[in-house]
User: Fold this.
Amino acid sequence: MSVHEIRPKLNDSEKVTINLGLIDLGQIDLLVQEGFYSNRTDLIRTAIRNQLNTHADVVKQTVARKSLVLGLQHYSRADLEAVQAAGERLQIQVLGLASIGADVSPELALATIDSLTVLGALRASPEVRAALAGRIH
Assistant:
């Protein structure tokens, strides 16, 4: 199992939809128009990063307390077969991206993964997601 710190690239991001009041939206458009930000997304990303920086200590403490893996955690078929051969089962907890290989069968996932908690994104085949649905928190 490999763990890597990740920096989001365009293809490693998730789309989030938000509703804003018209006055807030107008103020955002004004700041974009005045050149403070290149577009609405730039302002919203900057605001979110500023808030995350403000609360960075709380995030670090919570990650440690909850034993979360921070970043990317990928499980290949070979990883899960090794877990199965050892007679073990996984409780996966990730803040970032959890990825289960495309060649992992639903049966192998069920045999090796007891629980799956992801704060961020989970990448797995639709079949594996469906098989693990009752174990995803």
